[in-house]
Fold:
Amino acid sequence: MSGIKKLYEANGFNQIEKKYGLHFEDKALLVKAFIHSSFDFEINNNYQRLEYLGDAVLQMVVSDYMYRFLPNDREGVMSKKRSSLVSETSLAYLVRQEGLDKYIIFGKSMYNEGNIDSDSYVADVYESFVAAIYLDRGYAQAEEFIKRTLIKQWDYILGSEDTQDYKTQFQEIVQVNGAVTIQYKTNKLEDGFEAEVLLEGIAVGQGQGKTKKRAEQNAAKDAIGKRASS
Structure:
């Protein structure tokens, strides 16, 4: 517990509590929600199990909201909207918007490999934090956090290029009849990145962006557009 206390104090986790009006009885639970397995591989000392629970709570809150406030949407439409809202890209965007990414605790190996900016790791923290709130403060407080962050930016998330997951959309399109090999190749430019997406080794889309992630997303978007027009 002493180690967790040091992390809580050194990393300023009290600022998270102040920002959202939360008071965690279990400070260790709050810190654990931000600990990546590269820092502590023990299953109960990182956010992996919390992420699992948080995903379920998030799905429930979003589903409940849609059922109540989108009375004219059919099940299929609601499912697509929910998928977009809770996608890796959307959750990573929210974590960064809220400034929560700066609290993520990685092991030295992650810093050495330059992987700490991956959407996957950043998005995981949204779900693990939701779970921590749920376990320590209850469902209502977890729901309030989701409404304050995700639901508040509903329209932007569903309509913005920044939160569209074209890579997943492309994967779903091309794998409808079975598994295929999709690869992304990126090159550093003077002011960003350029990416190419290959389907079974054949280039099918290109894109550029300020980040590697955005370049790949734009390449996938290009590939989707070309398939639609062919």
In short: The longest strand covers residues 182-189. The mean pLDDT is 90.
